[in-house]
Specification:
The complex is a heterodimer. Helices cover 0% and strands 52% of the residues of chain A. Chain A is globular. By secondary structure, chain B is mostly beta strands. Chain B is built from no helices and 11 strands. In chain B, strand 9 and strand 10 form a beta hairpin. The radius of gyration of chain B is 13 Å and the shape is globular.
Chain lengths: 115, 113
C-alpha cells in the first residue's frame, strides 16, 4: 500500500539541543514533500518543503533532508526552543504535472522541548 | 491578511444527529480543501474544490457527508447522520490555485456522543 509514516511518535529534547524528526514514505512516485508544525488547537502550519530533485534544503533553523534511495526524509531543528514544542507531520504530494495538489499526511511526531 | 476562518470551533452532538461546518477561505483563493483529522493521526483529505467545482471527493463518505461551495467562496461541510467514528477535527484549507501551498484554518472539533 501507499503510506507516509514516522519512526518515532514522541521526541523529548532539552532547550538548545538539536532535534531530528524522521519520516518514511513508500510511494516512489511522490515528487514533493512538506513538513508541517501543528500546535494544540491550531491547524497545520507550513515549515519547509523539498522537491524530489533535491536532497537537502535549509530554512531558518530548519533543514530537510531527502534520501530517495531509502525513501526517507528528516527534519532537523537547530537550537530547539520551547516554542518548537508541537506535533510535526510530514506530507507527500503526488503531483500531476503540477496541476494537482493532494497531500498524504503521516501520523505525526510529538516534540516536547524541556527548559 | 486574514486567515482561513472556520466555525464553530467546537461542536458536540449525539449520534444520528446532523451537523454543519462553515469555512471562509482567504480572499482570492480559488482552491478549497476539507480535511478530517482523527485524534493522534494526520489530516486526511475529504474533498477539494476549484472555485465552485469539485476536483476530488474520492475519500468523502458520500452516504453521510456532503459539501458545497456554491458561489466559489465560502463552503459548508455537512454530516447526516453522524456516527461515533466521525469524532474528529475538521480542517479547512485554501490555496491561491491548484499546486499552490495551502493555508489551514484552526478547525472545528466535533465530538459525537
Amino acid at each position: 500500500g501507499e503510506s507516509v509514516g514516522l519512526h518515532l511518535p514522541t521526541l523529548s529534547v532539552q532547550e538548545g539541543d538539536n532535534s531530528i524528526i524522521n519520516c518514511a514514505y513508500s510511494n516512489s512516485a511522490s515528487d514533493y514533500f512538506i513538513w508541517y508544525k501543528q500546535e494544540s488547537g491550531k491547524g497545520p502550519q507550513f515549515i519547509i518543503d523539498i522537491r524530489s530533485n533535491m536532497d537537502k534544503r535549509q530554512g531558518q533553523r530548519v533543514t530537510v533532508l531527502l534520501n530517495k534511495t531509502v525513501k526517507h526524509l528528516s527534519l532537523q531543528i537547530a537550537a530547539t526552543q520551547p516554542g518548537d514544542s508541537a506535533v510535526y507531520f510530514c506530507a507527500e504530494n503526488r503531483g500531476s504535472g503540477g496541476s494537482n495538489y493532494k497531500l498524504t499526511f503521516g501520523k505525526g511526531t510529538l516534540l516536547t522541548v524541556n527548559p | 491578511e486574514a486567515g482561513v476562518a472556520q466555525s464553530p470551533r467546537y461542536k458536540i452532538i449525539e449520534k444520528r444527529q446532523s451537523v454543519a461546518f462553515w469555512c471562509n477561505p482567504i480572499s482570492g483563493h480559488a482552491t478549497l480543501y476539507w480535511y478530517q483529522q482523527i485524534l493522534g493521526q494526520g489530516p486526511k483529505l475529504l474533498i477539494q474544490f476549484q472555485n465552485n467545482g469539485v476536483v476530488d471527493d474520492s475519500q468523502l463518505p458520500k452516504d453521510r457527508f456532503s459539501a458545497e461551495r456554491l458561489k466559489g467562496v465560502d463552503s459548508t461541510l455537512k454530516i447526516q447522520p453522524a456516527k461515533l467514528e466521525d469524532s474528529a477535527v475538521y480542517l479547512c484549507a485554501s490555496s491561491l490555485d491548484r499546486g499552490e501551498l495551502a493555508i489551514f484554518g484552526s478547525g472545528t472539533r466535533l465530538t459525537v456522543v
